[in-house]
Amino acid sequence: MSDPMQILILVTSLSFIPLLVVAATTFTRFVIVFSMLRFALGLQQTPPNLVIITLSVFLSIFVMKDPLNELYSETITPYIAKELSAEDAFQKGSLTLTKFMVTQTKEEDLALFVKLSDSQMPKTVEEVEFTQIIPAFLLSELRTAFKIGFMIFLPFLLVDLVVSSVLMSLGMIMLPPVTISLPIKIMLFVLIDGWNLVVQSLISSVRF
Question: Where in the chain are the domains?
Answer without folding.
Answer: 3-146
